[in-house]
Amino acid sequence: MLKRLFPLRWAKIAAWTGAALAWGTTAIAVASNTSSAVPAEPPALPAALEPPTTSTTTTTLAPVPELPERGLVVVRYTPVPPPPPQVVTRTVVVAGPSGGGGGSAAASAAAAPAAPAPSAPVQSSGS
Amino acid sequence: MKRNLFRAMGTTIDVTAPTADSLAETHDLFETVEATCSRFLPDSELSHINTAPGAEVHLSPTMARVMHAADSARTITHGFVDAGVGAAVHEWGYDTSFEDVDARIDRATPDQAPNPEWSVTGAMLTRSPGTQIDLGGVAKGWTCDLAVDQGTAAIVSAGGDVRSVVPDARVEIVDPWGGIATTVLLGVGALATSSVSRRRWRLQDREVNHLIDPRTMEPCSGPVLQASAVTATALEAEAAAKAILLQGADGLAWADRQPWIRAALVVWHDGSVFATAGLEMAA
Fold first, then answer.
1. What is the least distance, in Å, from the CA of A51 to any CA of chain B?
2. Which chain A residue's Cα is nearest to B141?
3. What ranges do the domains of chain B cover?
4. Closest residue on chain A to B197 (Cα)
5. Considering only residues 97 to 126 of chain B, which have any Cβ-Cβ distance to chain A shorter than 8 Å?
6. pLDDT for residue A115
7. Which of B41, B98, B231 would you mutate first to test chain A, the one with the most A CBs within 10 A?
8. Terminus of chain A with fewer CB atoms < 10 Å: N or C?
9. CATH superfamily of B2-275
10. Chain A neighbors of B172, CB-CB under 8 A
11. pLDDT over 90 percentage in chain B
12. pLDDT for position A59
């Protein structure tokens, strides 16, 4: 049949070459369209369905102190969670035999701490 | 040497003295100064000053000396330590001895004008309307110095303010977690620690503390939880520690530039501890 349609050898070659070129061009075009496709923008939501706008406020604390001119000594660098706030409790004043009251009485009514050993170092824990 | 602990000025006083008599003298000294300078005792001289009408008030000899000490503290710290913040301290909720401060969730947030104005000349105090005096830290440091200078005590520690004339004195700096940040070889001199992690409470939804920044008249906030300073006197050390704390990240560098501050140390919000190069620590 091919001999009837394309009796000449050169005509057959030209026909097959043309068909191959057409097929190849089509395949490349399809591939190109697929890779460069831009996703379609979603349609705008009705105002009532839009997600709420959220804003976050963050406080940034300096990671280390400003460097002193004569040098900075890192005594300890082992970050730990911040300390919990001190629990504030109200002191109940129990009047003794000598009576008394008010702020100073509250302070003096507290149990006196035990005297430390004379050789124990003095402590400085902040006021 | 004798050593004794007692309560005064809302804190624990730790005294090492040559004799039992000098221990007792030191105890009496603290009680006398507290009776004069406490803003929590209604009959103290300071309470009368803070409620007195008029711009000028005549001071007793003891009060005049403490007010001059407060003036000195304000000068050397370039205004960071100002005894005139008493009204703001009161308004922010620290209006009673700290043992009695309670959660104050119903109070409005105070609004105080910054930079209170006051001056002391001789025995005369002059202040602008509304200015109230708070001598808490100044009075403690000044009393430590007086006890040591008059020879009744060798080492005095008052709520973190330490003054010593003992050459081999060591001071442990306790961090906000209760651990030892470091041990300082103090010797003859003074060391004070100021912290915003201890005397704090809640005001509405905000956590506040006792240290008021005179620039804003609001409680101190920043990356430093605790600051310590080594100086010649307890008054200077107390003032230096507060000024460092109030300056946050810049405090240590500021301390390094002050010739009257020998060394300084800060405890950072994350638990880290930094110091200036001059701090002498035990190995």
1. 28
2. A127
3. 2-275
4. A85
5. 97, 99-103
6. 56
7. B98
8. N
9. ApbE-like domains (3.10.520.10)
10. 121-124
11. 67
12. 57
Contact B49, B133 (CB under 8 A): yes
What pTM was estimated for this model as a whole? 0.72
Q: Indicate the residue of B97, B201, B225 with minimum beta-carbon distance to A106.
A: B97
Q: Do residues B263 and B276 touch, judged by C-beta distance below 8 A? A: yes
Q: Report the residue from A62, A68, A79 with minimal CB separation from B271.
A: A79
Q: Is the CB of B176 less than 8 angstroms away from the CB of A77?
A: no
Q: How far apart are CA B148 and CA B161, in angstroms?
A: 13
Residue of A nearest to B160 (CA): A124
ipTM field:
0.78
Q: What is the pLDDT at residue B31? A: 96
Q: Please answer yes or no on whether B265 and A75 come within 8 Å at the CB atom.
A: yes
Distance CA B208, CA B210 (A): 7
pLDDT tens string B202-219:
655 666 666 778 777 777
Q: Per-residue pLDDT for B114 more than 80?
A: no
Q: At what angle do helices B20-37 and B136-149 cross, to 10 degrees?
A: 150
Taking residues B86-115, report their average pLDDT: 56
Angle, helix B136-149 to helix B61-76, in steps of 10 degrees: 110
Using one digit for the tens of pLDDT, what is the confidence trace for B174-202? 998 888 999 999 999 999 999 887 666 56
- Contact across the interface for A113 and B12, Cβ inside 8 Å: yes
Number of C-alpha atoms within 13 angstroms, CB side, residue B204? 6
Which residues are within 8 A (CB) of B263 and not within 5 positions of it... i.e. 6 or more apart? B229, B230, B255, B275, B276, B277, B278, B279, B280
Residue A52 φ/ψ region, left for φ over 0, alpha for ψ in the -120 to 50 degree band, beta for the rest: beta
